[in-house]
Amino acid sequence: MIRFVVLFLVILISLFLLEIYEPVRQAVVLPFTGLIATVSSWIVQLFDANVHAYGDIIQDTKTMAAIQIAPGCNGVEAMIILLAAIVAFPSPLWYKIKGLFWGFLAIQSLNMVRIISLFYLLQWNHTWFEWFHLYLWQALIILDALIVWLIWLRYLPRRDKPMDDSQKSDAGEDDISSENEAQDFENKELPQS
After folding, report:
1. Are 55 and 34 within 8 A, CB to CB?
2. Predicted structure pTM score
């Protein structure tokens, strides 16, 4: 357990520092945020043709209402938390990869719902927008990462517990006596009628 906590914290702090490092921010975080805005506006355009994305900004061209997806609102932090938890936990590599894949989809899907709902909340009521943005959605995105990790833990393959020496000797004696009993049974002559 101590190994997990230490490794989790080291990975978490390292990735958060990497995220705010300006070259990484410019090359990875900002383009990813722009992609989130583009995908969100594409989803909204299925129902509202007046919505367009410009970089990390989603705008309604009719009302001119717009939101900017800032770093911290792109789901990257929740993904970092999930990545640190999955990588730090002892498990087979294939399960880590599957957990990260499904976790990314879950976090970003919920984040799309978040962005689209905030876009419309802003047009409806600024007070409600602020409350949902600062309190409700922030907590739900991080909770999503926690829930994904707990589900991932639930489906991990079970490892057999290693046996100590006394258990090994007991198991070995049981195996030998079972084999002897089986041989005795095979060697017995069956009564003939």
Report:
1. yes
2. 0.75
The residue range of the domain holding 19 is: 2-154
Q: Does residue 143 belong to any structural domain of this protein?
A: yes
d(CA 59, CA 108): 20
Question: What is the CB neighbour count within 10 angstroms for residue 116?
Answer: 19
Radius of gyration of the chain from Cα atoms?
27
* Per-residue model confidence (pLDDT) at position 96: 94
Three-class SS string for 119-134? HHHHHHCHHHHHHHHH
Q: Give the Cα separation of 80 and 19 in Å (integer).
A: 9
Residues of the chain with pLDDT under 70: 160-193
Which of 137, 24, 141, 132 lies closest to 81 in space, CA to CA?
141
Does the residue 67 lie in any domain? yes
